[in-house]
């Protein structure tokens, strides 16, 4: 990484503001390669220079990669005039960075959403040619049967004439004692058109009642993650995603 101002490097991790950094420098609480930093505009390379803040090694990450369990009712956008966005749910330290959601889930869809400030990886993950698997848990109105599995496998044609790629439908259960009668299933698609799952079930006459994304490529939604919470990806999870797109 090219040399950057010390205050910018430290403030980018969200724990300290530039003002805090200035104060800590005055108090000789920030060391660069063992020596107290003399000014906030000192140029450093965080990958090479050893920086300590208040006696603790400062760990720098160029990009942040977060997994969120998106709740219904918030929009997958960086800003919105009317609704809360997924960024409003992040801890303050991440909101200071220029993070954005990778792709969109509908306002009423829950589940796995990747949030990052790494534009290159996001672009690759969203590139249609990469055909990343996306798996959803879905509850639909009505009864799902073998013929629907076949229709998904053969590639549905949406009401606007779009020919979907083949997709997988695995029926989990039928709730006969609910009003309306509903079915639960897992669906895997390899593309991501606007409202795709809802449109696919729509042409089969099975309105979607509930939708939750549970996997993208090898990245599974952490079952421990409460709705609305997020956590950094582990190194292994990040490697899995990067390997997927080369
Ligand atoms: N398909 C949909 O219809 N909605 C989503 O949010 C994601 C996939």
Radius of gyration: 23 Å
Tell me the major beta sheet.
Answer: 9 strands, mixed
Bound molecules: uracil
- Tertiary shape: elongated
Give the overall average pLDDT: 95
Order of helices and strands: EHHEEEEEEHEEHEHEEHEEEH
Could you tell me the CATH topology label of the largest domain. Answer: Alpha-Beta Plaits
- Could you give the count of β-strands? 15
Q: Could you give the distance between the termini? A: 21 Å
Q: Indicate the low-confidence ranges by residue numbers.
A: none
With helices defined by DSSP (H or I, 4 residues minimum), what is the helix count? 7
The CATH homology group name of the largest domain: Pseudouridine synthase I, catalytic domain, N-terminal subdomain
Please identify the top-level CATH class of the largest domain: Alpha Beta
What is the helix content?
Answer: 10-25%
Short descriptors:
single chain, 246 residues, alpha+beta, Structural Genomics Hypothetical 15.5 Kd Protein In mrcA-pckA Intergenic Region, Chain A, Alpha-Beta Plaits, 3 domains, nine-stranded mixed sheet, four-stranded antiparallel sheet, 7 helices, 15 strands, elongated, binds uracil
What does this structure look like?
This protein has 246 residues and is of the alpha+beta class. Helices cover 23% and strands 27% of the residues. The protein has 7 helices and 15 strands. The strands form 3 sheets. Strands 7, 8, 9, 10, 11, 12, 13, 14 and 15 form a 9-stranded mixed sheet that branches. Strands 3-2-5-6 form a 4-stranded antiparallel sheet. It has a two-stranded antiparallel sheet with strand order 1-4. The structure holds uracil. Uracil (URA) is lined by residues 105-106, 109, 195-198, 211.
